[in-house]
Design goal:
With about 290 residues, this protein is an alpha/beta fold. The protein is built from eleven helices and eleven strands. Strands 1-2-3-5-4-6-7-10-11 form a nine-stranded mixed β-sheet, with helices on both faces. Strands 8-9 form a two-stranded antiparallel sheet. α3 packs across α4. It is globular. The two termini are about 35 Å apart.
Amino acid sequence: MSDIVAAQDAQTPTPGRVVQDVFVNLCGYETRIRQWGTPGKPAIIMVHGLARLSTDFDIIARQLADDYFILCPDILGRGYSAWAQTPEREYVPGFYAAQMVEMLDHFNINQCSWIGTSMGGIIGMVVADIAPRRIERLLLNDIGPELAQDAVDRIKSYVGGTPEFSSIIEIDAIMRTIYAPFGLENDAEWAELAMYSARRLPNGKFAMHYDPRVMEVFRDQIDEYDGWDMFNRLACPITLFSGAQSDLVPATIVKKMQNAKPEMHLLSLESCGHAPYLNTMDQIESVKIFLKS
């Protein structure tokens, strides 16, 4: 299927930093992919968290696009990607991973570096497990094979409903509470996060930019999550960015991951919880080190 190019951001004059929003059919569903950089350069796949979007990586992608070819998909049910027909079977890591393998095939990417935030890291582990030659190195951004139950319950509390909002200002305010652990640096970053995270409803109000059934499946299935067997099978080099204040992957789980894989590189980010937004220069420099490892 031919790509549909929806938009191009030419705010900067450097050709490598131009972004295109491309729509590709993956496992039967139209998927929005933000494409940065130049095809043929080393590939990076960046995948967002549970209730997030491809635009979460705009800041870091702009910094890396001169030297890499970067794909940032809206995972099924989020943003401008299609919504699932059978949510209980398709809003799950296994189906997301199958879509990502199709994405690699579509763009003729034999091997890539993978940066996965939260759920995006789980998807990366699944891809590395089912297609081990495709991921050269894996960065898990505050995620692991086990999750702290108290944090899972916290996440359930804010993704389980379908609230409506009267304005972007109202969304901005709630985002600053829910996503305070991201470590955003200024009002402009928060405003952009709020704008991209919202979709307007037929009644003129706003809702979050995802299919509410994504969260219903998460609520019903997340307590069964146990990724230790998969994690232990992974053969590619792994780097863990750990939010030092994270309640989802606290120090006890990080230690278990280190014991299972002593060769895993660990970076603790003191100013962040779940999950680092990869928006500061020190975080971006650490990602550059990961990409050269």
